[in-house]
Amino acid sequence: MLKIVAVCATLFACLPALGQAGDNPVTLVEARAHAWRAPARKLMLDATRAGSRIVAVGEHGIVVLSDDDGQTFRQAATVPVSSTLNSVTFTDAEHGWAAGHWGTIIATQDGGETWKVQRVDTSTDQPLFSVAFLNERDGFAVGLWSLLLATHDGGNTWSRVAVPKPAGGSRADRNLYRVFADRANAIYVTAEQGAVLRSKDGGASWKWLDTGGKGSLWAGTAAPDGRLFVGGLLGNVYASSDGGDTWSHVDSHTTGSITDLVDTRDGVVGVGLDGFVLKTSSGAPNFTAMQRTDRAALTAVVINGTDAPVLFSKDGVLGR
How many CA atoms lie within 13 A of 291 on its CB side? Predict the structure, then answer.
């Protein structure tokens, strides 16, 4: 695996290469995460809320926690892996899961303080890019080469799910980037070539949806007004008001590739490479965007308890 040297123009397309030169996979998944002097300055790849707490994950198995709305962060007490973590999700203030390289899935029952391994596959580095749960039992994780996993017992066991071939494709081999659910518990997975996977029956069957785009879609969320938003390469965003049956292109007013989209109380906030922060309100036709003067490579955003966005990047926590 290659050493992390920079965040390139297509950060998420490079995720399979994140790691350390010469790493032994068995060592990575069996060694605890190193205790860093400044953990909040490490590369962060995803963040979420666990009740009032903010939890973020990233390189070298880093997990950081904030109990003051993102003003300060500390490293989690026990993380049993040192491989890169790409995604984190919680169903309540206590129960959470994180996923990453070597197909690793770890879980916590104490708000992210301590974690245990649920799954790992050192036979091949087929990274998981995203994990999400509908409730404490039913969850899904997605990754490289159409890797789709499901659990119905809280992650005690994970099963591989067969992904259908996309229209015109000879096999199911598209990378799957972000899994999320809408208010009706329909499940969506963003993918390459402007495609989205959808399941309306709890993951029993899946269907490919065409947004009309051609580039990779790295982010997705369901807005409070019922619309779905997905985004990715070169600032492209697509929206659906009918559960994904039809999609329309939305002006994001950004040129940097979008790496995260999250719902707020009254809309959606997103971030992207080149320091772009974008937002839209319920019912608004388009996004507004602001570019940070530092043009930071933003990788994730979470809305804190005061409804303010907390930003994460290749250089760690940036705050607001």
Answer: 12
